[in-house]
Design brief:
about 180 residues, about 0% strand, about 75% helix, mainly alpha
Length: about 180
């Protein structure tokens, strides 16, 4: 009697994908890629419009440019990078390196968001709850993966990425800076 081979990372991934029918998994992947691409393009267009005519675009006078710049530099690239990480191979060196970069960007976006308080006339808004979620979730996800709890790590990262997309969506509402920059 020969022992059964130990499952490898790729066989575990194949087993997880087998839980979803092929078309469903593919539809989810395509849907995610469309959301990632759409948010990335919207961010790029908004920032390009700002760069092309900075005098035409107003920035709320109570928001220091430094904090807004830090927030955008951290949050905007986190959208495509986080999506790429979630949709590609897990556990290898590239995943770990890009995950660390993404986590640092998310922490920077969360921390800088506390200086951006224009939605409710200079006070914190409900969207700042997502910043608190980020500050709690990143260390917890790192702790989970170091303990070997891949399922909890994955759940945390997916929730955090969805929160990022939701926050970006709110940033494009009428009257918000990114929305005003996008619509001109």
């Amino acid at each position: 009697m020969t022992p059964s081979p130990t499952p490898t990372h790729s066989s575990r991934a194949a087993g997880a994908e087998a839980a979803l029918p092929g078309r469903s998994a593919q539809a989810v992947r395509w849907g995610a890629m469309i959301v990632i691409a759409g948010m990335s393009v919207a961010c790029a267009v908004a920032i390009a419009r700002l760069a092309a005519a900075p005098d035409r675009v107003t920035i709320a006078p109570h928001i220091p440019h430094l904090w807004l710049t830090i927030h955008l530099v951290c949050a905007v690239p986190a959208i495509p990078l986080g999506g790429w990480i979630l949709l590609n191979r897990k556990g290898d060196r590239r995943h770990k390196m890009l995950g660390r970069i993404w986590g640092i960007m998310m922490l920077g976006a969360a921390l800088s968001s506390f200086a951006l308080t224009g939605l409710l006339g200079g006070s914190f808004s409900p969207i700042h709850a997502l910043s608190i979620l980020t500050l709690v979730t990143i260390p917890r996800a790192v702790w989970n993966i170091r303990r070997g709890n891949v399922r909890a790590h994955k759940r945390s990262m997916v929730i955090l990425y969805i929160s990022l997309v939701v926050a970006a969506g709110f940033a494009f509402l009428p009257g918000r800076l990114m929305g005003d920059w996008l619509m001109g």
